[in-house]
Amino acid sequence: MSDLIFNRVTDNYVYTGSRLRAGTTSDKLRLTSTGSQSVIDLCNNSNIDISASTIFLNGQIVSEGGIQVGSGTYGGRITKSSNMYEIVIDPFGVDGVDSTTQDASGSVVIMGDLIVRGNTTTVYSTNVDISDVLLTLASGSTYTSITDADNAGIQLGNGYANFVYSKTENRWTTNVGLTISGGLTVASAVSNTNKITGYAGIDYSGNVLSLTNASQLPVTMSTFTLKTADLSAAIATTSPNDWVDAPGYVVSRVVLSPNSFIKMEFKVNYISSPEADQTLSFQVLKSITGNSPGSYTTVFSDISLGSNMGVTFNNVYYGTFIDDLAGATLSSSTVFYKLQFMRNCPSNDTISTPFGIVASSGNYISLQELYEPNA
Q1: Tens digits of per-residue pLDDT, 304-332?
Q2: For 22-39, what is each residue's pLDDT tens digit?
Q3: Average per-residue pLDDT in the chain?
Q4: CA pair distance 227, 363, nearest whole angstrom
Q5: Residue 185: phi, psi to the nearest 5?
Q6: What's the order of all strands across the beta sheet hosting 161-166?
Q7: 8 Å CB contact between 259 and 299
């Protein structure tokens, strides 16, 4: 061989016992292939040691054994897996090949963005630490609106617990209970059904129960109104068969919901007329026309109390009633209730004797709202 050209068609193999160099310029040695044959044919367990700092390839590297980067504790490997269509990146030195169960220590650092185009991303790590303050799901999906993302959310295991979006209800749902240890604020007023308050945000399909399951409706003492002062005697001697206002016996309540029930109690000591055929009646009226008493409508009546046997009758009246606020449209959040009494007697009776409410420290009026959020 008279020159240093090794890539002619007539050359097949070059055997040399010494190192092969190409000189100081890049055009002195050219390595190509002839047909299906390789230019460099190395024997088994042979190595190619290239000390050049950079290698430029126009094609690709094909390896059956893998690619090793560095060595020892500062090395890692990219190898094939025992599973079809799978490769393994092992950053923990050189500790084996062809296995997905190798030591999972070490880290793979990606300095830029990571884009995964496959259908499934599976993470076997114990902890997932994300520095971003906002986690966005379905950002790259083809959904055109939020109502298309039915059942999107977070699921544990095979679905024994989940927190997902329902396009039918247009809200988040969970198939297990929800415990809130802090405060709960509901905002954005709307008029839908099944609200904890008259505002948007929390619906319920069953009863709202206390921890002791003692009540089917959430009732608190903050809904309680009691009046004992200014309840003086209300003794009348005229106007038989006409309703008379009991002075001071007016009480109001600012309600939480226009669908609630008001439980009211009236306790008064009274005296009925001693004449025969005469009794005493009580009734309660309600006003819902504004923040001060306006026109009243009758809520309930208890009639013909007393003996009508011609003797003076002293007794105690206990009036109890539950008023459904949903039966009327409230013009404000305040409702008023007042007490009236009346002497019942025949039209030909002209006797006028004292009758009505007797002053007593035990007289009272109380209102309690039984909270009902349903519209």
Answers
A1: 887 666 677 888 999 999 999 887 677 67
A2: 545 544 455 555 555 555
A3: 74
A4: 9
A5: -115, 130
A6: 153-156, 161-166, 171-174
A7: no
Residue carrying structure tokens 């190898």: 79
pLDDT digits (tens, 9 = 90+) for 235-285: 877 777 889 899 889 998 888 888 888 999 999 998 887 777 778 899 999
Which residues contact residue 182 at a Cβ distance below 8 angstroms, ignoring those fewer than 6 apart? none
pTM, two decimals, is: 0.45
CA distances to 117, 123, 137, 193 from 113, in Å: 13, 18, 17, 46
Lowest mean pLDDT among 1-10, 62-71, 327-336, 345-354: 1-10
Q: Which domains does the chain have, with CATH numbers?
A: 223-370 (2.60.120.660)
Report which residue type is found at 110: I
Tokens of 301: 């009546």
Three-class DSSP labels, the chain = CCCCCCCCCCCCCCCCCCCCCCCCCCCCCCCCCECCECCCCCCCCCCCCCCCCCCCCCCCCCCCCCEEECCHHHCEEEEECCCCCCEEEECCCCCCCCCCCCCCCCCCCCCCCCCCCCCCCCCCCCCCCCCCCCCCCCCCCCCCCHHHCCCCEEEECCCCEEEEEECCCCEEEECCCCCCCCCCCCCCCCCCCCECCCCCCCECCCCCCCCCCCCCCCCCHHHEEEECCCCCCEEECCCCCCCEEEEEEEEEEECCCCCCEEEEEEEEEEEECCCECCEEEEEEEEECCCCCCCCCEEEEEEEEECCCECCCEEEEEEEEEEEEHHHCCCCCCEEEEEEEEEEECCCCCCCCCCEEEECCCCCEEEEEEECCCCC
Higher pLDDT, 234 or 205: 234
Inter-residue contact 343 to 273 (CB < 8 Å): yes
Question: Are 340 and 248 contacting, i.e. CB atoms less than 8 angstroms apart?
Answer: no
Tell me the C-alpha to C-alpha distance, in Å, between residue 66 and each of 77, 81, 294.
Answer: 7, 10, 91
